[in-house]
Design goal:
5 helices, 8 strands, 4-stranded antiparallel sheet, globular, alpha+beta
Length: 166
């Protein structure tokens, strides 16, 4: 199963009023949302840049995965119904197929952004100023690695240390 709504079917369903904020830019949401029905607008610094109305779309996953504050505000356009993932770690552990679905969604978004930047680079790569920086931005995106993984487990919660015994 690769339908995120199917994985989220047993999660709480919440109705959000028009213009209500689901995720506030800069906040640590800790939870994720799966769009059941309706539409949301995504804003950064108060500037709307995307409208999403596809059932099964996910919001809040980037902040949770990267352990960073939300980079955008998600606001209901009209009345919206969402499934609430209170604990994404438990959700993904219990339904690894959901993790794969979210990974594919995120990869698809990154692919679209990369294609757009390549197009901009082809059009404006020789320009001075900000437009000429597209090549550097693409290089950074392609070579950027996430945070270093820490070894550790319930049995060895400290991880990343020497296990030499005297």
């Amino acid at each position: 199963m690769t339908d995120l709504l199917g994985f989220a079917a047993d999660l709480p369903l919440v109705t959000v009023a028009p213009s209500e904020t689901l995720i506030e830019e800069g906040a640590h949401p800790g939870r994720m949302y799966v769009l059941q029905q309706g539409a949301v607008v995504i804003e950064h610094d108060g500037v709307p840049f995307a409208r999403i109305d596809t059932p099964g779309a996910v919001f809040g996953e980037m902040a949770w995965v990267l352990e960073k504050p939300a980079t955008a505000t998600v606001r209901a356009v009209g009345e919206v119904e969402v499934r609430v993932v209170e604990d994404p770690k438990v959700f993904f552990t219990d339904a690894p197929g959901a993790a794969l679905t979210v990974l594919r969604t995120t990869a698809s978004r990154l692919d679209g952004l990369t294609q757009y930047l390549v197009d901009v680079k082809q059009q404006f790569g020789g320009e001075e100023g900000h437009l000429g920086m597209v090549s550097q931005i693409l290089d950074h995106l392609v070579h950027h690695q996430g945070p270093t993984a820490r070894t550790g487990s319930a049995r060895d919660p400290e991880g990343d240390h020497s296990h030499d015994h005297e």
